[in-house]
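Structure request: Dienelactone hydrolase family protein, Oerskovia douganii.
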Amino acid sequence: MAEVLLFHHSLGLTPGVEAFAETLREAGNVVHLPDLYEGRTFPDIESGMAYVQEIGFDTILTRGASVADGLPEDLVLAGFSLGVLPAQMLAQTREGAQGALLFSSCVPTSEFGDGWPLGVPVQVHGMDADPIFVDEGDLDAARALVQAAPGEAELFLYPGDRHLFADASLPSYDEHAARLLTERVIRFLDGIRA
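Returned structure:
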């Protein structure tokens, strides 16, 4: 089995993120799902991001790193949108990372070091017309990652303009794209533990 540390998006630890984690567990994986917001949830991205601005992005990264400190090294780091920040940081900087899963976000690898670490496979998933993913530079960062880490990095684009399309508890949920994303993620995790 793979051991996954999964970080929630800017709305907090929603039922949809919990359901996604449970699906990965049902496929035979161990999934850790910390609450970086300490119990808070928000109705929309704007209010969730206002809270992040209030506490600071560094707090999110610190909380993510603190959770990882208590877990084994050989983790797959995963995150939805905002949760990509701690996931990508840990994948690039923590010894023993087994892989990374970046949903609806990707930042330039220069944010956390000199590039993507050798031997750490990564998948990036996003919608091809999502204004946050496309217009804020995430798609460019994902394409650069794929180019810089051939054979390690994969980019999967889904038709549509929804940001949090894999969270079944939100109006932005896209069942077809979410099902395909989940299938690809489970295959990825099966490859990690093979």
